[in-house]
Amino acid sequence: MKLPILDLQPSPLQEGLGDPYLKLRLSDSAPVALPMEAAREVIVVPVEQITPIPNMPNCVLGLLNQRSRVFWVVDLSIMLGYTGLIASARAFNIAILQVGQVPLGLAVPTVQGVTRFPTDIIQSPIGTVAPSIAPYLRGCLPEEKEILLILDPDAIVNASVLH
To answer: Would you say 23 and 115 are in contact if contact means Cβ atoms under 8 Å apart?
Structure first.
């Protein structure tokens, strides 16, 4: 049986839409976007599968063993200064990002899907967001009712709070 050849080139309909981003929500008023080149997968994990490690910063939930890979999981909301995940949650939405050979799980309340926009419309976050969040961002994108924060995967993986 001959398998069909798949053409993985972007279609003309997608070319003008911009770069893809995984859209996440930290709270009702805090949408963030993770560049798809760093996003590996999104999973829903029962709380019991994350192994807490003593004496870690409060944003670090613990270690997760997923398909014979062990990696850290952080509560992205707490890391960026927002209210953390609900303590009574039974499962976490985890966006797994990878920078180089370093995987990191980002636990978030909501995964909203993929969005696209041109990179050149991203604005500087300085003066728009709290100074404590700015180091973790590539920029921001003002939308109709809120500001979409564009995450910097390198800055998150290399954050001093995680080392």
So the answer is: yes
